[in-house]
Model the fold of this input.
Amino acid sequence: MAKLFAPVWRPYLVLFLGGLAFRLVTALFFRQPGYMDAYYYSNVAESLWRGRGFREDYLFNYLSQPLPTGLLNQPSSVYWMPLTSLLIYGGYLLTGGPSFLASQLPIMLVSSFLPPLTFYLARDIFPDPDERGRRFGWLAGLLMIFCGIYAPYFSLPDNFAPFALFSLLFLMCCYKALRLPPASRRQAHLWLAGAGVCAGLAYLTRVDGVLLLAVPFLLLLLGRAGRQPSGLSLGGLGLMLALFGLTVAPWLARNLADTGLLFPGGGVKTLFWREYNDFFSLNKPLDLAYYLNLSQPSSAWGIGPLLGSKIGALVENLWLIGRGALFLTPLFVVGLFSRPTLERAQASSVSNISSTLKKPISEQALSGGVTAVAEVSNPAKPPRLWRRAEFLPFVLYVGLLYLAMSLAFTFPGTRGSVFHSSGGLLPFIYLISFVGLDTFIDWLGRLSRPRATARRRQSYSLLIVVAFVLVSLGFTFSLRSGWDTDYN
Done:
């Protein structure tokens, strides 16, 4: 226990306890789940508590196949995934029975790990002797405690928090494998194995977790196209897929036993919605012919409305992703395209310059990673932030999520899927935003009072944290008035 309070662990403990305390505060604003998703997960958890297993006594939608023959004792979680209900069930076991507070407790615990992970992310990307790592870690970790419009949802019985945790861990495993040199392929395989488990847990939380698996394949293709060596390999990606399969196999076996299908939820049908209300349609085929207006033709649908829905989704989902950054969006954009130096690489080049230059490229990479080598060889012009190994998986996942939810799953995307799936992006968004703040202040220092740069960083950073506290509390409080009455 004494080691837990050691200086090296103290920031993580403080941020975890701070996150948990704030989750408890926001939880007090609400008395019931308040909307359909959260009710569904809680109801399935109650079925588990009563010893019935994953069962439900109602029809949620008509997408699943085969259609049930009755209302009672049907397989549950065929469309929405089971892991959130399992977490809530753990809360029921812990407290001795179903209650709203019991359903919130495991979700609050899961989301409380996000602030210390954010601190670790900053320290890992900007390590000693780079003073920015600790400063960025505290600032981004504090923002992750309050987390703006996500504040109420990280304490409610929904999949926001678990999906954020697993997707964040997946992206971290990816960048750790990516920045390793080919000579450290065995270590990279371990990170990719971890990525496979995290992707499996993300999939068991939300079906669109399967999108994560595309990220390392794209990284490998981009690396080979650009002749950039890394720890990624086809063998490592095969291991990732194997671990993903082992993680989800028990649930797929349950689906097969209960429904006769591995994937009974009908999620592919969401590709062919003409409107969100098709979610609850019984007599629409929801296939390509229907989507192209060839079957059940409607004057309200056609090539114009189809293209309009895509364009509208591209605009709306861009706004939805930006909502996570709130007023930090301009700083995020500046940070993403800035060229911050890596002090670790510079320090290494000063102390070991003679030995480093005598090493072949693969050995140079061992001492500081592929990105660090690039910066040592060209210290005057380091790569833009989005091109660095630590941020490239994040950038690719943002692009995949945005395009998939806008162009493919258009109506589910704009009605909550993008919002649900973006929580794990927040630590990267906050960290990049503070890099952007530093860049902006450096620009400002060139125009006036360069000696005030350090003081400006402190004051502007404090203003951002205070603003996030106010926005988080204000948004949570604004939901309170109608939350406990709308669904009674």
The beta strands are 55-56, 74-75. The CA atoms of residues 87 and 106 lie 6 Å apart. The mean pLDDT is 88.
